[in-house]
């Protein structure tokens, strides 16, 4: 990935990012954190504080304790808003020059501001030390690389362009759950049938889930090349192709249950799980919610790419950084080693619903993953990879924040399609100034 141009000033809004941190060069080898019974403290900031994410973190911590018993894990997770609360606290800690030893961020353009502000370290040497350039597929390495350097280590890979559908609700509307709509128009027609059958066609949650839905609609109408062109200037945000996508987005939002627009993804997904709604578009962390409700894949529910995006994999990855100013550099490196190890990736991803970043797992190791994850791993190896806007892989934080605000305003009835398109085009302007 080529660096997207600096966001001038790294203002407070830019700092409302996926993370902040510290991880200095030349830190003491025994770590600078307070000593605890397990060795020097390693402060790790994430937003994994609920549901399958919390369970996945707990699984990672267990592996960390086994692999690095000389360090003591300090869980500095902050819950709320898909990471927004954690990002606010991290911004404050960074401004106070009190970074954690490592922090969670989304791999990709979301890290641009930190890189330009020299707030996170190049960890390319760790990739060599841990043999990650061989363990991770080239398609992933390319998306992690900025001007020849790598600044984070992924714990997983997620797919964002997934429709989750309740099979009973579809059948009640006269739809065949095994037949996926060919495009957005066909999908919207199916939603109309669900509405006529007296059930909710689709649920949509808070702003970031609305933006995630929008990016998948853009993918469907623009295709992979057109969608990617939104980030390098080849596709105009104010062009007719985007207008068509926004018209489709409006039709879908008009069919959505508006009562969930201020809720996180889990409450918005629950009607699909319980059988009062047909569809929800969400990343594949949602599989853990269905598992937790004892729902069976391809029986109680189905999952498929957003219509029109078959053959595209909307990529995001949770990753961790080595911040400039870390008090425990060696402890942070130990955490990065754990999350990238086979043991760590298997323990975490089998719980969270994501797929491992590593592509070197044996058949026996792969057999530990569920049926949906097996399908997702196959797609990641075969499909065209595109990057998520909502999850920071495609755009710097200031851009995704502004788009988030524009979509939320539109969802609440504060603008029309023309107004939304104008605001999206304005939000994208910093990407044209690289």
Automatic annotation (TrEMBL):
InterPro entries, per database record: Bact_solute-bd_prot1, SBP
PROSITE patterns: PROKAR_LIPOPROTEIN
Domain of life: Bacteria
Family per record: Belongs to the bacterial solute-binding protein 1 family.
GO CC terms: cell envelope
Keyword vocabulary terms for this entry: Signal, Transport
Subcellular compartments: Cell envelope
Function description: Part of a binding-protein-dependent transport system for a sugar.
Main localization of the protein described in the UniProt heading: other
Protein name: Probable sugar-binding periplasmic protein
Residues annotated as signal peptide: 1-24
SUPFAM superfamilies for the chain: Periplasmic binding protein-like II (SSF53850)
